[in-house]
Every structure is written in structure tokens, then in C-alpha cells.
Amino acid sequence: MGAPGRVADDYSGCARACPAPAPPLHFLPPKPAMKPALHEIDERTNLTSSNKFELLLFRLGQSANSEQRELFGINVFKVREILVMPPITSMANASPHVMGVANIRGQIIPVINLASVVGCKPASGLGILLVTEFARSTQAFAVEEVSEIVRLEWQQVLSAEGQGGGLVTSIARLDGDIENTRLAQVLDVEQILQNVMPPEKQATGSAAVPKVTLPAGTVVLAADDSALARSMIEQGLSSMNVPYVMTKTGKEAWDRLHSIHTQAQMEGKTVRDKVALVLTDLEMPEMDGFTLTRNIKSDARFKTIPVVIHSSLTGAANEGHVKTVGADAYIAKFAADELAATLLEVLSHR
Question: What is the pLDDT of residues 40-78, one digit of tens each?
């Protein structure tokens, strides 16, 4: 198994199916050259210190609404590896969007027809498999072709709330804030997974979720760009009897924190009398969770506010980096009982 962010050298076999990328994709080197691969992963991880990330671009075929072959994107850290399409075993009574399962390095992984999900028609078939790890699960997405990996600032990414039929979280301006920039749709893969392969039961709202008592008059300030994630967080916090303020981006949360601070001063209080804890996602337009956390912890007005990162970006590299930006805890999406336990633990040190 590769680590998140690596791209398998098996991709070299799809030269006929995929146009030459620019800049070239980063391939997994042979095992003896593991140090360069680890250096590449570290370099990508360190991008978060400057509010940057890398987006893997791919195409799914002709759009249902035009003759265009639009670009789509997924955060590199969610991609375990890229493969030429392996043999797929069809599964009885599977969702129409599930092609079947594939045996990838000894692991049976469901394969989702991503073109079908978003309503595109691939002209050259689905020749490439993106094996992904996020939200505590491993699954593969079948795509027509992979284009390139681009390095972007989160300021280049704008929210697509209400514009993508619930399947697109944001729009990436690939060439920056210029006229006629190329655009890529950043898919809400958590929502897609929920739609195609819904869990048998939701962890949020369970009677087993412990109650969390905040200091009187305080709230949890939460930030997440995914409508699905916000809904699940709201259900979870409500089941804990926790009052909250929900925002859609790191920048919105940061601006809201300033507003709360101003209001507290007018009342002769501190921001800690208003905000018990900040709960933030990592991947968000305009300002990511790493930057939000770093801003909070480097500001004398806010640095004592506990910050818990709640993300689908799992893995040792991401969890390790959480500590470097000063977060008080990290919890993987989505399990309300684990979130409640984490909040209780962090608040106990208040």
C-alpha cells in the first residue's frame, strides 16, 4: 500500500489513454529510492504552512449540459495511488454507480463510476482508477483520464455552495484571479460516497453519545465547507446538547471570531467568555483549517481557545502536521461518540 499523496508508477501504462500532463505527475519511485518519495510527501505536507495544497486534476468525459470535457479535482492527500484500470468483479444488487470491486494489493476495494455519478459520458472509456482514502474508508473512483497535479493557494478556490447540485464543494481558479482562467470543479467526495454507498446507520444522533457541558454562555465555533459534513456535525453537536455557531470556510470562521471578540469587548468580557472551542475542517476554500488554527494560536487574543481539527484527511502525515500548527486535538470524520469524547477531553484542560 502506498501512503496518501503518492501516485503509483502503474500509471505509466496509460500513455495512450491520457495526454501528456504538464507539469508531469509525480510517480512512485522504485523501493530503493524511498527517500525521495518521503521527501516529496514531506514537501506536500509543508505546503499547509503557506495556505497551499495540491490538486489532482482529471476528466470524466463530455458534460451532460455541453460538449465540454470539464476538469475535476481532488486533493492529492486523499489519493493513495493511481492505476490503469484493473479487472473489476461485478457485485450482485450493487448501486447503479458501483462498477464492482477490485483486488488492489490484496485488498478488496469498491469501484465507483465517477462519470456516471456526475452525469458525464466518457468518449474513451474509464481507463484510470483513483484509489482514495478518506473519512475512515478506502474506495476507488473510475475516471476517463488524469491530467496533472497543480499547486494552488486556497485563495484561488471559491465556494460552490448551491451551484453544483450538492456534489461540488468549490471551484478552483487554476491560473489565479485572471480573466478566462481555467476552472476545475472540486468534488465533494464525502457526499458522493454517502450518496452511492450510504452507511447502514449514522453514528451521529446516537443515544450512546455522551453529553458535553460547555461553560455558561459559550459556544463551539465550527467550520466546514461540505454541506454533508455540516449537517452531520450539527446533528452530532445537537445530540451532545452543545450550542454552536456554524461557518462554511476558515476565513468565515476567522472573521466570525473577530466579530465575537468585538462583541465581547463591548460587554466587558473576553472572547473566551463567548467561545469554548473551535472545531475546524482542513480542506476549505479561501483559508484552510491549518491556516485558521495557526492564526488562532499566534494571536494573543485567541491563542488560549482550544482548537480541534475534524477532518476526512486521515493518516500519520496529516495527524502529525496538526500538532505543528498548535491544534489541541485531531479527530477523523464522522463518529459523534469519538467527537464527544475528544471535546470532553480538550475542555477538561480549560
Answer: 545 555 555 567 889 999 999 998 777 788 999 999 988
Which domains are delineated in the chain?
9-196 (2.40.50.180), 219-347 (3.40.50.2300)
Q: Is 335 left (phi over 0), alpha (psi -120 to 50) or beta?
A: beta
Q: Which of 200, 186, 82 is nearest to 143 (CA)?
A: 82
Q: Which amino acid is at 140?
A: A
Would you call 262 exposed, middle or buried from its count of C-beta atoms within 10 A (0-12, 13-18, 19+)? exposed
Count Cβ atoms below 10 Å from residue 197 Cβ, excluding itself: 15
Q: What is the pTM of this model?
A: 0.76
Residue type at 228 in one-letter notation: L
Q: Which amino acid is at 55?
A: L
What would the DSSP string read from start to end of 13-53? GGTTTSPPPSSPPPPPPPGGGHHHHHHHHHHHHHGGGGTEE
DSSP structural state of residue 62 = B
